[in-house]
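Reviewer comment 2.1 asked that we show a complete input and output for one of the modelled complexes. We chose the shikimate-3-phosphate case, as it is the one discussed in the main text.
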Amino acid sequence: MATAHQKKVGNQVILKVRPSQGLKGTVRVPGDKSISHRAALLGAIAQGETRIDGFLESADCLVTLRCLQALGVSVKHLGPGAYEIAGRGTLGFQEPTDVLNCGNSGTTMRLLAGILAAQPIFSVLTGDESLRSRPMARVVEPLRSMGARIYGREGNAKAPLAIVGTQKLKGIAYELPKASAQVKSAILLASLLAAGETVIREPAPSRNHTELMLQHLGVPVVSRGLKVVLPGGFLPRGSELSVPGDISSAAFLLVAAAILPESDLVIEDVGINPTRAGVLYVLKAMGANLEILEEKWQGEPRADIRIRSSRLRGVEIGGSTIPSLIDELPVIAVAAAFAEGTTVIRDAAELRVKECDRIAVMARELTRLGVDISERSDGWRIKGGRKIHGGEAHGAGDHRIVMALAVLGLGGSNEVSIRGAEAVGISYPGFAKTLRQLGADVEEVEYGIIHS
Ligand code: S3P
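Response of the prediction step:
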């Protein structure tokens, strides 16, 4: 118990995961994180009202809503996952009276930077320790070449970012050095209010949710191959937006079901946009017993996915497919640990600048738990089939690392105890509860840290 002079700082969670037989049943996963951010941001700058259903109520997306409220946007909560956003349209945002804290969310910071560059107000974007260490020059540079006045630490490379917005941005022709939907989207959002056309070229396809949503909201953006063209001077029109289940969250359940011996799982209404669904192709190539059912289109392609226990084999993954599964690589590494043969993952150096250095942390934690994995500069080499002996692991404050380690624990031969599991709330609130409902042996133990 904390005394009067001591303070309990937040709740920390240890996730205890024990070997399990299988995942059985039918579930939904929470709304797509990338699409939820975009729905809120585009709704906020639209003319008229936007009604969003299936919005992901996780820490990252709630931070986007809080930043928008601080910019004068009215956000009405209508029920679970349902929001009405009153678009500011030509009125523009109000100058915030404090810094905008983007928490752990790179998408919030990078996309909002694009919008704020074109609003005639002063704003400062900051975030937690992880976000303040992540590269921001990739958005600052193209925005500056459009005429934006945006400044950051370390020669404009790191947050906090200070933005002196202007209504005088000019469209640009920009070649992305790396495929990045966050950078592409930041430029597209800035170019909505810029004079003249913007043309973006990517080296490989990155997720196209912004383009699809802009089109749905009446902005004539044209996307052909690796080129996106947007004429300046168009604001989106408020409308209805429905967010599908997040394939990045579904990936943890898919891999768990595949590696456990008695699984039969259906995940309903998951987004299967090909620029995001690389994990489905990889699992298929690994021999997973996976079927796409009930495919439909509602703003985005979506489907039910059935997966049963599978005998997986090693694969090689690299090249232009990497952006379509970048966030799923930690759990694909776990699938590889249970596959027959060797898996090599290359061309994924971007993993080093995510919420943590995911290449180094996964190599360290999987080694600790018994996996035969070696770290490469741009990925891993994993030899499958070794016995997972379990023990203690640490999620390094990264939601996807914690969940990947949890999946490993389900398929191991002893308990895996994961510290820092509160990070799961960044993208998948209810992860442990869902696993339990599907028959897995998972327990969350909360503890507080007492500071004097
Ligand atoms: C995201 C794009 C990807 C992804 C991130 C979400 C987005 O990042 O890893 O989790 O919503 O646009 P990059 O744009 O840095 O590749």
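The chain has 14 helices and 24 strands. We note this here for comparison with the apo prediction described in Section 3.2.
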